[in-house]
Every structure is written in structure tokens, then in C-alpha cells.
Specification:
The complex is a heterodimer of chains A (about 220) and B (about 80). Chain A starts with 16 loop residues before the first helix and ends in a 6-residue tail after the last strand. The longest helix of chain A is centred in the last third of the chain and has 23 residues. A three-stranded mixed beta sheet of chain A has the order 1-2-3. Chain A has about 220 residues and is an alpha+beta fold. The radius of gyration of chain A is 21 Å and the shape is elongated. Chain B has three helices and three strands. A three-stranded mixed beta sheet of chain B has the order 1-2-3. In chain B, a hairpin with a 2-residue loop joins strand 1 and strand 2. The chains are: A alpha+beta (about 220), B alpha+beta (about 80).
């Protein structure tokens, strides 16, 4: 049931472009000098410095789970011999459970994703195991590469809503194919606030599937 | 050897006794064999429910070996 409580919706279409726009706007307004940057610089020097500044300051992990996840993925990707960079992404403010998000970018991203995303899935599974130890707070983990999972999540959410509508229209229970826990969660979250249906997972292990169930509501 | 280090890094992050993790390396018909050894109490942590953790380690390892142009096989010793 707790899987249904948060509305992640389609917030995974965030590919960072908005952040970039904000930072650029701030830089143009002349507001935020980087820490340690001399404020009394001449105009010419100041302009040069600004050009050298990274356009988007990298998000620095804020808690232990994020730090451990970043370190783990960074070490593994390096030892895989992949020409890639690994960074943490700011947890989505909309997601109440602050899913830990690690992103891999670079020339070998396709290898890190693997056929049908299998390598990425494995990396995510291992990261989850590595950072969630018994007796501690459990955090969901997303390991993405070049936006692969984000795009997949948002098409899965779109499909879920289409099927949600179909379930309401036809008054029928719709059952998905078996999916991974994370994919099931994406469906639950996409339909959490969807009028006229509830979702639940049925079956065990590799055969667990999401069902969309139409419910009668008093007309408002 | 890099692939050996990869298995070490992953296994150490999963177990309760990282100092007990060892990876032995052998060669068989041009294939690299890696034998992962962990503390007895940690075996379940590197195999996982239905072998999912072991499967995930192998998936990551194979992706790395393809990049390196080598063939590798992982055994978990108990």
C-alpha cells in the first residue's frame, strides 16, 4: 500500500534543462559568485572567470545514502574500464521518499546501459544492496545513464495512464506483464492520483504484476 | 588485474566482513576464471534471493570483459 502514497507522476522527464536555465539566468543577473571567487575582480577578469565556471554546478550528495551510492557506482564504473563520468542528481522535491539518483554520462554509456538496459538494471540492483544495510533507513535507488531510465519511466507512466483510462472506460481490471519492483512502482505512482482506479501488485517474485482496478466513485 | 578488482569492489560493498573477501584468478582455455570467496555468513549476500545478486555481479562483469575484449567466468566458492 505504501507504494501508492507518493505521487511521482511524470517528474522523471526532468533532464536537467530547467536547472541549467535557472543557473544561466542567475549568472546573467550577476548574483552568485562561486565560493572563493574574488569579488573585487576587474570587469575583464570577472568575465573571463565566469566563462571558465562550470555552467551547472554539480550536485553534491547531502546524506550518507547518496554519498555511498555515488562512491559505489563511481568505483564500479571506473573498474569496469568505462570511459564515463558518474554524478549524483538532486533528489526530486516532489518525491516524498527522496529516491537516490545516480547518473552515468560519457562515451561508454551504451555499454553501461547494456542490451535492454540489463547492465544498468544490474548496477542499480547492486547499488541498492550496497547502500541499504539491515537496521537502517531504506532508500529507493535509481541508476541512470544518459537519461535512459528517465525516458523509460516517463513512457511507462504515460502508458499506465492510458491503460488507467481504458480501465475506467471499460470497467475492467487491466493486468500488466511481470515487471521489476521499480517499474511496478513507477506504475503505482503514475496512477496514485488517477481518478476512478486503484492499483495493486499480484503474484510472487518474477511473476509479480501490477493490476489496474476500476473503482466506483460517488460522482462529484 | 582490473576485472578481479571489479569483483572485489562489488563484493566488499555487499558483505558484512569486507576484509574476508578474496578473489582468486585462474586461466582455462583462454578464459579468465575468477573465484569469489567471502566469509561463510556472507555467502547469501553475494548470491541473493534466487541468485539475483550473483546474476547482477556477472552481468556487470561481462559488460566490463566485453569492453576489455576478454572472456571471463565468475565462480562463487563456498
Amino acid at each position: 500500500m505504501s507504494e501508492n502514497e507518493n505521487d511521482l507522476d511524470e517528474s522523471w522527464d526532468d533532464d536537467g534543462d530547467e536547472d541549467e536555465a535557472e543557473d544561466t539566468a542567475e549568472a546573467e543577473a550577476g548574483g552568485d559568485a562561486s565560493p572563493g571567487e574574488p569579488t573585487e575582480a576587474t570587469d575583464a577578469d570577472g568575465a573571463k572567470r565566469r566563462e571558465r565556471r562550470p555552467r551547472r554546478p554539480e550536485y553534491v550528495p547531502e546524506d550518507e545514502h547518496e554519498r555511498r551510492a555515488l562512491e559505489f557506482v563511481r568505483d564500479v564504473v571506473r573498474e569496469m574500464g568505462m570511459d564515463c563520468r558518474v554524478k549524483a542528481r538532486r533528489p526530486d522535491a516532489e518525491s516524498a521518499d527522496r529516491e537516490v539518483v545516480i547518473e552515468v554520462v560519457g562515451n561508454d554509456a551504451a555499454r553501461v546501459i547494456g542490451k535492454k538496459g540489463q547492465v544498468l538494471q544490474a548496477l542499480q540492483f547492486l547499488t541498492h544492496r550496497a547502500i541499504n544495510r539491515p537496521g537502517q533507513e531504506r532508500r529507493h535507488v535509481l541508476v541512470d545513464a544518459e537519461g535512459y531510465r528517465s525516458r523509460r519511466d516517463s513512457s511507462l507512466a504515460t502508458m499506465a495512464k492510458r491503460l488507467g483510462k481504458q480501465s475506467v472506460d471499460e470497467g475492467k481490471i487491466i493486468t500488466f506483464e511481470p515487471m521489476s519492483p521499480r517499474d511496478r512502482r513507477v506504475v503505482h505512482l503514475a496512477l496514485a492520483k488517477f481518478e476512478g482506479v486503484v492499483t495493486r501488485s499480484e503474484g510472487e517474485g518474477d511473476d509479480r504484476r501490477v493490476q489496474i482496478i476500476p473503482v466506483r466513485r460517488t460522482p462529484s | 588485474m582490473a576485472l578481479r578488482d571489479l569483483v572485489l569492489t562489488i563484493a566488499r560493498a555487499l558483505v558484512d566482513e569486507p576484509e574476508a573477501v578474496a578473489v582468486h584468478e585462474r586461466e582455462r582455455n583462454g578464459e579468465q576464471i575468477l573465484e569469489l570467496e567471502v566469509a561463510r555468513a556472507d555467502i547469501g549476500k553475494v548470491i541473493g534471493k534466487d541468485g539475483r545478486t550473483a546474476q547482477s555481479i556477472r552481468t556487470v562483469l561481462i559488460a566490463a570483459s566485453q569492453k576489455a575484449g576478454r572472456r571471463v567466468h565468475l565462480d562463487i566458492v563456498d
